[in-house]
Specification:
Radius of gyration of chain B: 32 Å
Structural class of chain A: mainly alpha
Number of domains of chain A: 1
Largest sheet of chain A: 3 strands, antiparallel
Order of helices and strands of chain A: HHHEEEHHHHHHHHHHHHEEH
Structural class of chain B: mainly alpha
Strand order of the largest sheet of chain B: 1-2-3
Distance between the termini of chain B: 33 Å
Low-confidence stretches of chain B: none
Order of helices and strands of chain B: HHHEEEHHHHHHHHHHHEEH
Oligomer: heterodimer
Strand order of the largest sheet of chain A: 1-2-3
Mean pLDDT of chain B: 86
Helix content of chain B: 55-70%
Number of domains of chain B: 1
Mean pLDDT of chain A: 87
Largest sheet of chain B: 3 strands, antiparallel
Number of helices of chain A: 16
Radius of gyration of chain A: 31 Å
Number of strands of chain A: 5
Strand content of chain A: under 5%
Distance between the termini of chain A: 27 Å
Low-confidence stretches of chain A: none
Shape of chain A: elongated
Helix content of chain A: over 70%
Largest interface: A-B, 96 and 94 residues
Strand content of chain B: 5-15%
Shape of chain B: elongated
Chain lengths: 486, 488
């Protein structure tokens, strides 16, 4: 009996929404915006990918042997092909990790470089038209419009009392209303998504061809559906708490502004005020200063060795180089002691740099974590976090950048710095050899994140989104049970 | 004469009635409290954000200047020369492109060339990732979202709401001109919206006056006042739009649903679609693609140059068994160096010409795209507000161009004073690098030149005029629709 009641109300709601053209509006918007957004975002990605490939090719052409790495070396970060899902912070992420100056005995200095440029500034001024934006703005407004008068509107038209003159459980009625609104928006969204995927296929990006793209697409679609569920239930909750559909929509608009805009933005600023962090520019310069200081100390110690080591301290430069040519064992001993000093300073520099990186990294992570947690008060933020991380354009990419930077530094240090010999005598430094300059250079590959990595970071947002959906629905059911029909 | 006076009296009566209604329903009070909280808080947060960026900029500048004091430091210490861009002191008005604009330019130089290039970089991106992700909470945002919503909330039921409550019929049963009603309603309700807005802005400015720029440029007040004028215009546009839709609908709820959809379209859809339309109408290569094009040109040039130098080395072998300090050897090497210098200078000027040509083509296409984008986006009044606000705050496209031009001039000075004096000569079995300048001379610094405010005004004037036109159009529409409105 309940099943048939549910079915009847569900059908009635479906027909009503189709007749009053809300569904047509939703369908029209999804069918136009999603494929269009996908096409533009993919074109952007294709241009970035071409630039990335060009840069890698040019670098590999000019860096065939280890000797070339001494002058300059770069590790390039490939752009994420899933930008149609969410452009996220892709535009601000570095495009490469470059060495600064020569790679010497004391190890490399690396810095992040973003050469993607500004391009069309209006993209940044108005924001992207990716799936995350379409869902967060357009679909959430549509969900609100589908649900705002679900209860209060029926009360105003006096049809609610008529329905309850039959033996219809209130929970069945509200569930059927929710299900109908959800199914209609979800259907419009899925049709748009399908057309979007076909548009991508026409551009040469077959979403379903690889599990690395297909699974994130499915997860993002799933997240968008959960988000629609949340917003429909929020609409119903407010509708059951209001006496007129007008007050329901006004409240919902205010709630939407707060959830979509004020909470996330205020969270960012609050975290900056609560936990200020030095900029990357300052950190890099401080690291450069620290490194220069230690290098100076190393040179001072080597100079002290030259001035105090018996046999060496009285040598002139000519005598020293003559003794070196004659393979004097004293010079070999001096070289060994110098290597030891350089080795110990290299370790100290590494440790100091790692300490500074870890210190500022912890501070920055703390600030971001605070902002992220505060913004999770809004389901919109949870949804955006989820889709962006799944698309590989979120904040988790920063962690991966750090891992790659460390791996790149180790590679250069192991292949060049640790093997490099530099012999100093007074103001004269000679060498820079000790490693095979002609040896083929190792291929530098940026390690991208796996789906498992992405999922590990987004499960709190996914869980919270589901919680918000259930919470709002439970609130709507509870509130509707006590709703005064008069 | 008495008719004129009667009409004035009617206008005043309706105007007073609307004001009183606003006070009685506490709408005015609610908006006033909201504005008195939101604007000072938003301004305080944006200022704190600016202060932290300014502090970081000053610290970076201090560290750079302490490490790169002389020409020798620029030449021989890692990192080369740098130019840092100060954050805009008016970014509390609009963060605009501030986070994505380059905040530094650094030299990129190969040891075998006697010129350097400058690369614009954005290092602040990593400092502001999460802020970029959610967008700023600046004055421009508060007006675009909060104030425009409030404007709609004030006007959506101005006509349809009165019809529903039956008061419109009563009012029109007296001999009152419809034009007086709509004008008095619009004037009173807009006043109730504008006063709290101005009070909120005044309070935020009184609590924290606008800071002067880091470069110590002219007074910030003309920019702030222009921004307030723009804001009043955009609020009025949405207010009049609400009035228009209210005059075209029979129910207040229909009115607000339509307005909500229109707002979404104007705020979120049209500006983004304008970017897409522009890509189709005026395609331009990305900056990254242009960067790669430059690398290709440079590599081809270097390859050809070194091949010619190779041929020169082969044609001029080092004479064996001669005294390397003797005058004959010295003359031979001087001739050889002069010949090699001539080759390098020729290739360097070819390279500059080729890159200049490629840059011209790229910039022409990019500027055309930006111009088209700007024109298409003006379909939405939101775009006519957002972009000018960024320009007024010094966080827009003009600021990018200013910085890029300043970097170009700085690079000219660097090449002139430092890098052109660096001489590289390749010889059989080795190479020689010498510096013909004074390594102890102070390192050049990039002067921070601001954009004259007059230039900004000229740039944003069309948007100002368009906002006036949108206002006139929507109000005229509301006026005509109300004249034909059926109050039954």
């Amino acid at each position: 009996m309940r099943h048939s009641t549910f079915g009847t109300i569900f059908r009635k709601e479906l027909l009503e929404n189709i007749r009053n053209q809300r569904f047509l509006l939703a369908l029209g918007l999804c069918v136009v915006l999603i494929p269009l957004g996908f096409a533009v975002q993919y074109t952007d990605y294709a241009a970035k990918d071409a630039a990335y490939r060009d840069a890698v090719r040019a670098f590999e052409d000019g860096h065939k042997s280890l000797g070339d790495f001494v002058q300059s070396a770069s590790m390039f970060r490939p752009p994420s092909p899933l930008t149609p899902l969410s452009a996220g912070v892709e535009a601000l992420l570095p495009t490469s990790i470059d060495t600064v100056g020569f790679v010497g005995v004391n190890g490399p200095t690396l810095s992040y470089v973003n050469s993607s440029g500004l391009g069309d500034p209006f993209c940044f001024l108005y924001g992207p038209l990716d799936l995350a934006t379409i869902a967060a703005v357009v679909l959430s407004i549509l969900a609100v419009l589908f649900a705002f008068n679900g209860v209060s509107g029926e009360k105003e038209r006096r049809t609610l009392a008529q329905v309850f003159s039959n033996s219809v459980p209130r929970s069945t009625l509200i569930t059927a209303k929710m299900a109908a609104a959800f199914v209609l928006i979800a259907a419009a969204f899925l049709v748009g998504l399908l057309l979007g995927a076909l548009t991508l296929a026409l551009q040469g990006f077959e979403v379903w061809a690889k599990s690395a793209t297909f699974v994130p697409f499915l997860i993002a679609a799933g997240l968008a559906l959960v988000f629609i569920f949340v917003m429909v239930n929020l609409g119903l909750l407010v509708s059951t708490r209001s006496r007129s559909s007008l007050s329901a929509i006004v409240t919902l608009v205010m709630a939407w502004v707060a959830l979509f805009m004020l909470v996330p933005k205020a969270a960012v600023i609050a975290s900056k005020v609560a936990r200020p962090v030095k900029s990357q520019q300052v950190v890099d310069l401080e690291k450069g200063q620290g490194r220069a200081q230690l290098e100076k100390e190393a040179e001072g110690e080597i100079d002290k060795l030259r001035k105090t080591m018996p046999g060496i301290k009285d040598m002139t430069m000519d005598a020293f180089f003559k003794a070196k040519r004659d393979k004097n064992p004293l010079i070999a001993d001096y070289e060994k002691k110098q290597d030891e000093i350089q080795g110990s300073y290299r370790e100290r520099i590494d440790a100091e740099m790692a300490k500074l990186d870890a210190f500022y990294g912890t501070q920055r992570d703390g600030q971001t974590r605070l902002a992220k947690n505060l913004s999770r008060l809004s389901p919109v933020s949870c949804f955006l976090h989820g889709v962006t991380e799944i698309a590989g354009t979120g904040l988790a990419e920063v962690g991966r950048l750090k891992e790659n930077k460390t791996a790149f530094a180790s590679l250069l240090e192991n292949e060049i710095s640790r093997k490099m010999k530099m012999l100093r005598f007074g103001n004269m430094a000679m060498g820079g050899d000790g490693f095979d300059r002609e040896a083929p250079a190792s291929k530098i590959v940026y390690r991208e994140g796996t789906l498992r990595d992405e999922l590990a970071g987004v499960w709190p947002d996914m869980a919270l989104l589901v919680f918000y959906g259930i919470f709002f629905f439970a609130g709507a059911v509870w509130s509707f049970r006590r709703y005064d029909l008069r | 004469m008495s008719g004129e006076r009667d009409r004035d009296r009617t206008f005043r009566a309706i105007f007073r009635k609307e004001l009183l209604e606003g006070f009685v329903t506490r709408r005015f009070l609610a908006v006033l409290i909201l504005c008195l909280i939101v604007f000072p808080v938003g301004s305080y947060m944006s200022r704190r954000d600016y202060q932290s960026r300014l502090q970081n900029y000053q610290e970076a500048q201090r560290l750079y200047e302490s490490t790169k004091k002389t020409v020798g430091d620029v030449l021989f210490k890692p990192g080369g020369a740098k130019a840092l861009r100060a954050p805009s002191s008016l970014s509390f008005l609009s963060t605009g492109l501030e986070i994505v604009l380059p905040d530094a330019a650094e030299t990129v130089k190969k040891f075998n060339t006697s010129y350097a290039e400058m690369r614009l970089t954005n290092t602040q991106g990593l400092d502001n990732l999460y802020g970029f992700f959610h967008g700023p909470l600046d004055f421009s945002f508060l007006v675009t979202v909060v104030m425009t919503f409030l404007a709609l909330a004030f006007s959506y039921n101005a006509v349809s709401g009165e019809k529903e409550s039956g008061t419109l019929g009563l009012m029109l049963s007296n001999s009152v001109l419809r034009s007086r009603i709509v004008t008095a309603k619009a004037a009173a309700q807009f006043l109730m919206l504008a006063v709290p807005f101005l009070a909120g802005v005044a309070l935020s400015l009184a609590l924290a006056p606008p800071p002067a720029s880091a470069a110590g440029a002219a007074s910030p007040w003309p920019a702030v006042l222009t921004a307030v004028a723009f804001s009043l215009l955009i609020i009025a546009v949405f207010f009049n739009l609400g009035l228009l839709v209210s005059s075209l609908t029979r129910q207040a709820v229909t009115s607000i649903v339509v307005l909500l959809l229109v707002w979404t379209a104007l705020f979120a859809v049209v500006p983004r679609l304008s970017v897409i339309a522009t890509r189709l109408l005026a395609p331009a290569p990305s900056e990254q693609a242009f960067g790669q094009e430059k690398i290709r040109i440079r590599l081809a040039n270097e390859k050809a140059c070194e091949a010619e130098v190779d041929a020169l080395i082969k044609a001029n072998p080092i004479p064996q068994g001669r005294d390397s300090m003797g005058p004959e050897w010295q003359k031979l090497t001087a001739d050889f160096r002069a010949k090699q210098d001539a080759i390098r200078v020729k290739y360097q000027s070819d390279l500059a010409a080729e890159i200049g040509k490629a840059r011209q083509t790229y910039e022409r296409k990019r500027d055309a795209q930006i111009k088209t984008s700007m024109l298409v986006a003006r379909v939405s009044p939101v775009s006519c507000y957002v972009r000018p606000m960024a320009e007024i705050a010094g966080t827009g496209w003009l600021e990018y161009k200013r910085f890029a031009d300043a970097v170009d001039r700085f690079l000219g000075a660097l090449n002139d004073k430092i890098f052109s004096k660096n001489r590289f000569t390749r010889m059989e079995g080795g190479a020689n690098i010498s510096f013909g300048g004074k390594a102890n001379d102070p390192a050049p610094r990039m002067p921070d030149v601001r954009i004259p405010f007059g230039d900004v005004v000229r740039d944003v004037l069309p948007d100002f005029v368009l906002l006036l036109l949108f206002n006139a159009l929507f109000f005229a529409g509301a006026f005509v629709a109300f004249l034909r409105y059926d109050p039954r």
